[in-house]
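for the writeup, i need someone to sanity check this before i put it in the appendix. the sequnce is what the collaborator sent (i think, or maybe the updated version? ugh). structure was predicted straight from it, no edits. if anything looks off just tell me and ill rerun, i have time this weekend
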Amino acid sequence: MTTKRNGQLPTVTAVIPCFNAGSRLAPVARAAAAIAGRVIIVDDGSTDDCVAALEDGPWLRCGWSANRGKGYALIEGFRRALEDDGTTHVCVLDADGQHDPGELPKLYAAAMETEADLLIGARRFDAAQMPLASRIGNRTTAWALRRLLGDAIHDTQSGYRLHTRRLASAVVEQVEPGRYETEMRILALALSEGFVVAEAPIATLYERGNPSSHFRGVTDSWRVCRALIHAAAERRRRRRNS
């Protein structure tokens, strides 16, 4: 299926997972629609009518009535993006304004230059721009990734990512959806299956006490670490059996 495409990057589909993002969603959707060929907004059971309140625009709205987790919204967004034969890349960005859609052309150019299947928008981890707990969490997962998988990724937790159609297809077929750990599963899949992974710098737009952030510190951090441990164990099993 091929649909009408808009924007500066007509073969890029932007996926915006959304759960109770309030008034923050509309500016993100409009800015993304001005750049990406298609925009898909996946409503993960919002109760604040943030998606329903969006006026008709150049985007597809889909989702469900009860909250399942960001990972379910991500996988659904990938699936919907792949329904369009003209999509070569799937970009994921958050609904709360902490990812600037205006940086998408720069990320796309970096993906073309590096031939990356997964291009991660990497933030700066300095005290002026990111709270201590977030800096520790990101640095811990980056260290664990190097120790367990042997790969060096600066910003393992960034949700601003650009995926090739090939990787997006593998994600839909192989990645189990969940909550925030799903992004680690996608990264681990890309690294383990030989996809090219690269990073490019993005602005660190981190709002302290962001009311639309639903990351639960202890619980979701454990889910992320567990996904990484599982990926490392699976890689070791494959190597033993090869």
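The beta strands are 9-18, 36-44, 60-64, 89-92, 118-122, 161-164, 197-201. The chain has a mean pLDDT of 84.
thx in advance!!
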